Structures are given as C-alpha cells and as structure tokens.
Amino acid sequence: MSNQNAFELDRAANMKTRPLSVAIIGAGAGGLCMAVKLRQSGLEDITIFEKAASVGGTWRDNTYPGSGCDVPSFLYSYSFEPKLDWSRRFAAQPEIEAYFQHVEKKYRLTPKIRFNTEIDSASFDEATGLWTLVTRSGETHKANVLVSGTGQLNRPAYPDIPGRENFKGIMFHSARWDHAADLAGKRVAVVGSGASAIQFVPEIAPRVGKLILFQRTPNWVVPKDDRPYTQEELSLFKRFPILVKIQRAMIYLTLERNWFAFKKPGNFFNNLFRKAAMKEIEEHIKDPALRAKLVPDYPPGCKRILISNDWYPAIARPNVDVVTDRVARITATGVVTAEGVEHPVDAIIFATGFESTTFLAPMKITGLRGRDLNEAWARGAEAHRGVAVAGFPNFFMLYGPNTNLGHNSIIFMIEAQVRYIATCISALRNARVSYIDVKAESMRAFNEALQKDIGQTVWAAGCNSWYKTEDGKITNNWSGSTLRFWWEMREPDFQEYRLVG
Ligand code: NAP
Fold first, then answer.
1. pLDDT digits over 8-38, tens only?
2. Rounded distance between C-alpha atoms, residue 95 and residue 297, angstroms
3. What would the CATH number be for the domain defined by 164-220+266-301+303-350?
4. 146: how many CB neighbours lie within 10 A of its CB?
5. In this structure, which residue's CA is closest to atom 22 in ligand 1?
6. What is the pTM of this model?
7. Domain formed by 6-155+355-500, architecture
8. Ligand 1: which atom is nearest the Cα of residue 161?
9. Ligand 1 centroid, distance to 231 Cα (angstroms)
C-alpha cells in the first residue's frame, strides 16, 4: 500500500488503529504547539526532550537587556491561546517567556517534558518502524514518530577570530548574557550589529564608559511602532476579547502586505523601507562620516530589516564609536583591526548571531539504510515543505529549512506546520502503516520550484545573511507569502508520500 487512495479507503472502512508514541525535541514555540495539538487529537504518548531546565527556547535563552520580539505580541502568540493583557504592543522577552510557561502549565505539558535532557542522536529502524533516541547521558528512548522543534536560531555562533581564547576580560555571547558581569563605566567592544545588537546597545550605552561597535555590514533600520497599552485599553480587551482578535487580524494583514517588499528588490514597497530608514539616519546622525558608515549598499530586506527607535540615537552618543575596519584578532586586553589599530577594552560581547544553516547539527539523525541527515544536507539543508526529508520516515521538523520569514509571525508558520504534521501522524494510526516517507521526487520538485522562486526575491540580491549558506544557497526562508504557505499546508497530499506497511 503506498498511495493516498489506499489510505483513504482504509480510513473510510474504519481502519484498524494502533497506539502511537511521539518524541519531540525542544520545548520552544514549536515543540509546545505540537504537543498541545497532538494531545487535543487524543494522542497522549508524547515525550518532549528539552536540553534546558525550562520551556521557551529562544525566549528563555536571549535574556540580554532590551531583548524582545519585532512582531507585535497579539500576533506573536498562538491563535488558540490569545493573551488579552500583553503590557505593550511589542512585548519584551520576560513577558514572552512567561507566555510560553503559561502554555506549558495550562495545557498540562509539564509531565510530558524531560528537562535537562539533550538528545545526541536518533536513528530509524525500518524493521520495527521505530526511532531510537539517545540522550547525552546515554539513555535510550523509542518512539514511532520523531518531531524536531529545535528551530533555526538556537546555537550561538562565535566568530572565528584568532586570539579569542586569550582575552582576559569579560567576554560572552548576547544569547548567553552574563548578568553577573558589571559593565558600568567599562570599555565594551560589541562585535556585530544585527537584530540582537540593535536591542541591547541602546540599553547598555548610557551606562558603559565607552562602547566600540565593530560593524561588518550596516543594516536597514526602520522605526518601531511600539507603546504600552493603557489601562483603559487593557480593560476593553478583557471585556471584549473580540477586539484582540480584530487587532491580530489587522496586524497580520499589515505585515503580510510587507511581503511585496521582499518579492523583488527595488520595487515600490521595497523603496518605502529604504525611505523610512534613510529618514531615521538623516534625523539622528548628523556626522556625515558616521552616516556614510551606516547606509547599507544592498536592498532593504536582503538581510532582515530591523526595527528600533533608539538604535541611531545610541550610535550618535559621544561614548559610542563605530569601527568598520575588519576585526583581525583579539589580544589579552583588546581588539585589533586589520589596519593594525588596537582598541583596548574590558569586555567583549559577541552579537554575532546563530548557527542558522546547519539546523539539527550537532545531533546525528540517521534514516533509512544508515543515511546521515547532516551528510544529506552537506550542500545545504532542504526539506519537503519545510517539514519532512526523503529517506527519514516518521520524522518531521518545525521551523525547518525554508520556513523562515522576513515579514510576518513565525508562530503563524509553526501552527500551519503543526496542523500538517498532525495529519501525517494521524495516517500512522492506521495499524497497516508502519511508516510514512516523503517521495524523493516530490521533495526534489518542491525544492526546485522553491529555489527558482527565491532566486527572484530580495534575499538573493547580493548580500550575505543568516538566511543562506556560505555557497549562497538560501536554506532558511520560505519563498512566498504566509498566506500561500498556509494554503499549501492546509492538508498533506498523500500522493507526495509513501505509506509503507
Ligand atoms: P545576525 O542578525 O545574524 O547578526 C550577526 C551580526 O554579527 C551581523 O552584524 C554580522 O555581520 C556580525 N558578524 C558575524 N560574524 C562576524 C565576524 N566574524 N566579525 C564581525 N562581525 C561579525 O544575528 P542576531 O542579531 O543575533 O539576529 C539573528 C536573528 O535572530 C534575527 O534576524 C532575528 O530573526 C532573530 N532575532 C530577533 C529579534 C527580534 O525579534 N527583535 C532579536 C534578536 C534576534 P554581517 O552582517 O556582515 O554578517
């Protein structure tokens, strides 16, 4: 049996079902959502493996000052669990982390989570149709289905700068903020000027002695339409939750419209971002030499467009210097640039992003005939509709390859993936189906079309970014609108899969 008709016939004939077990890796936004939806479908044999001691994923890890989401909170939350009392339009990290903790408690997921348990490897056995997971401490766990919810931004990337290990001062990555480190009055080097840097630099600049920003590439930064909600608004939201739904829909549509800016570099909508960012630079940066350093030479959106109201004012502070010369090495006491200038500093903060294109590494995932996922992805990760990989049966990913966005909420994308995966898993309840595996030709056709589409977008417009591999393959972003993704993911086409008994 290997086609949709067979599956549908089985279903219509009240197929014989079997119990299923599902292992989920990661208790972040993806893993929690998957667990909630599986439980609601009646599946209880779920184990979530979480390497840390609490839930929240990136919202647990990124505790740097000023950390927050650049998608308005009414949309950066699950459709099935609206929060009526977000304190502001763009909530900060503690409130977002608390939201995911609330979801964990409300949906009684805690007993399903194995905290402080990191998965090292997982391998599929064709004979039994089972995955065997091995934890860091060597324990094994078997499950019919494996779902990875590790996302794209969970492992901090440290730059390969010679001498890093010799530095004698304070040194950490923004995603592992050292809250015990006292930066007051200190000379602080910040390496990197992306989404994380633009949030914490304005927070620390007023209290450090000197801040030297080592900027490799400038970003397009546009204003952030943020403010706290008033007491009156909050009580209205509480009395009339429909208002929150309306706000959510309006935010969604406004952000979705921004997709047109990404479709092609230099189009009308793309230029609106350029104009908005240039206006900010002109308003806040009076020094022409500094201005020249801050204007990107690539179209808006090629790298993620950043939103902030306090980035340029922080950069214009007298105690902040922007150094665009390449960082050549780190000494015991400072940072040396390629021009040979040494900048003595007391602290170095790496705001250098994440290992975004290697997805599930360093985990070793082994599929049919001993195939290693990291090897299969040696020339750049790819998946079928972002969720499945041919040769890796009963294995699904959340926020996997080519599911990232530059313009809308990842939670929306995750919910579409969860719905799709849950339906695939329901096919496995059929006692005659041992495993489901996407056909190699379906996956190939999907990715050929996707790469052709994505080649037209702003992401391919000649900049480097965390969306692509060193060879330039765009492995992280979805090539279309979220509406299109939602439409294509509303249910699996089982013709694209082998259902093997
Ligand atoms: P990022 O945007 O990838 O920025 C990394 C920065 O480090 C870039 O400026 C990069 O320069 C620089 N860099 C990397 N290696 C370097 C080296 N060897 N020498 C000098 N500079 C180096 O990373 P991020 O700021 O952590 O943000 C990553 C993503 O996380 C965001 O795009 C976003 O999706 C998410 N995020 C979201 C929020 C939010 O919602 N507000 C906040 C934080 C993070 P180049 O540009 O030249 O590569």
1. 545 545 677 889 999 999 999 999 999 999 9
2. 36
3. 3.50.50.60
4. 24
5. 192
6. 0.95
7. 3-Layer(bba) Sandwich (3.50)
8. 18
9. 36
